[in-house]
Amino acid sequence: MLSFVIPVFNEEESLKDFYRELIPVVEKLDRDYEIIFVDDGSKDRSLDILKDIEKKDKQVKIFSFRKNQGKAEALTFGFQKAKGDYVVTLDADLQDRPSEIYKLLDKATDGWDLVCGWRKDRKDRSKMIVISRLFNFIVGRVFGLKLHDYNCGLKIYSKEAAKSLRLYGGLHRFIPLLAYQQGFTVDEVVVEHEKREYGKSKYGFSKVWKDFPDIFTMLFLAKYAQRPLHFFGLVGGLLIITGSTILTYLSILWFMGESIGRRPLLLFGILLVVAGLQIFFTGFLAELIISISNKDRVHFPLKYSSDKS
Q1: CA-CA distance, 276 to 149, in Å (whole number)?
Q2: Distance between CA 136 and CA 173 in Å, rounded?
Q3: Looking only at Cα atoms, what is the longest distance across the chain?
Q4: Of 83, 115, 141, 179, which sits 20 to 30 A from 165 (CA to CA)?
């Protein structure tokens, strides 16, 4: 069975054409399917259009957030509701054509857990293409998963890979990396990309200020999510050592008879030690919280299990 998860946010202009183009493709696949639209708090007529579609097609399911939550949250919700062995995601703006699903499905059935679309001949504005390529290059270099296109909306997931993802904020930009870090296999396939004919992009130049700070978030999650004390302890320890060194130097001067009470360096040394202790114990508390939360809830993605229970 195939599950199609389509996040929707103010797509009233393209929804009917998108659905008309999707259905013939889905029917030719000759598989059971469901189409899940997750309306992310649209302010236009998107929800009304989806309701009309739902009345005519029993395979369509609609979930609508009361307010805009973000694409990451919409995808996560759709993954939780999906029942298919494979989960396909694509945007409703028709820049990624439903007809390209065949290419990804063929690759996925070869044993890949996540197959991403690669918009090799991308039809967006030049500055956004440059930003995207820079983002893909940096993420590939930093984390080791080298893909040409992390953010293509057209992807296909195995059921286990999709349901393992807990996305929020800007983490939908790192879906291939998140799956890869959990041990799932990831590859990409070249897909056709079309110029935008409906509406306008949800991402402007501000995308730069969202993408690159998220890289640091991912770096922390990748290396220290389960051991935060390793990060906070290092930072806190460096501050404590630096502050202690300053205070030791001032203490020596004080024993030699010099006045240190009015020296800014004294306050700076004390500040470094206090800040270091606070950061260290922040990491310690984070370790305790993680330990308690994982005590009764441990999940390991398995590649194979002979246990049928």
Answers
A1: 40
A2: 10
A3: 90
A4: 141
Q: How far apart are CA 263 and CA 261, in angstroms?
A: 6
In this structure, the number of other CB atoms found within 10 A of the CB of residue 219 comes to 14
Q: In what order do the strands lie in the sheet with 60-64?
A: 60-64, 33-39, 2-8, 86-89, 155-158, 114-118, 186-190
Looking at residues 240-263, what average pLDDT do you find? 91
In whole angstroms, how far apart are CA 73 and each of 121, 219, 234?
29, 21, 33
pTM exceeds 0.85, yes or no: no
User: Within 10 A of 280 (CB to CB), how many other CB atoms are there?
Assistant: 19
Domain boundaries in the chain?
2-224, 228-294
pLDDT exceeds cutoff 70 at 283: yes
Tell me the pLDDT tens digit for each residue of 58-112. Answer: 999 999 999 999 899 999 999 999 999 999 999 998 888 899 999 999 999 999 9
Distances (CA, A) of 222 to 67, 75, 228: 30, 21, 11
Given a contact cutoff of 8 angstroms between Cβ atoms, the answer to whether 1 and 34 are in contact is: yes
CA–CA separation, 206 and 38 (whole Å): 24
Lowest average pLDDT, out of 38-42, 213-217, 284-288, goes to 213-217
CA distance 221 to 171: 11
DSSP assignment of 55-118? HH-TTEEEEE-SS---HHHHHHHHHHH--SSEEEE--TTSSB-GGGHHHHHHHHTTT-SEEEEE
183 against 215, higher pLDDT: 183
**Is 3.90.550.10 the CATH classification of the domain at 2-224?**
yes
Q: What does each C-alpha distance from 162 to 59, 101, 200 come to in angstroms?
A: 20, 17, 28
